[in-house]
């Protein structure tokens, strides 16, 4: 009986990786619908700069550029790396020459595989200003 129910739920679930996890269970691994009192994450305005998450540790700048170049002229592609180890932190940025290229890049690569990992592409949000640092008292001591 339980197997039949699981099969029915899986068959009725919509396709796609994001929807797969939220439709099989009501709260695993995330709630299927956000709570009403939680603020929604603001959507970024369309721009030529894309934020790409879910990258493999082995993804390089050149590999990211080649993958996104299928959808438009890539001006710059960068995988953010850890300073100490030099490995990818799992995200990066791709800048296109046009808005149309950026939109095509999102449409073509969001939820697709790159180096064996599912990646997600979206418009990059502008960096927020960091809080001001507290004043330093004293100075350099020898």
Automatic annotation (TrEMBL):
GO biological process: mitochondrial mRNA modification
Domain RRM stretches: 48-126
Region named Disordered: 31-51
GO cellular component, one term: mitochondrion
Keyword terms of this UniProt record: RNA-binding
GO molecular function list: RNA binding
Skewed-composition ranges (Low complexity): 33-46
UniProt xrefs under Pfam families: RRM_1 (PF00076)
PANTHER family: NUCLEOLAR PROTEIN 8
The protein's name in its UniProt record: Putative RNA-binding (RRM/RBD/RNP motifs) family protein
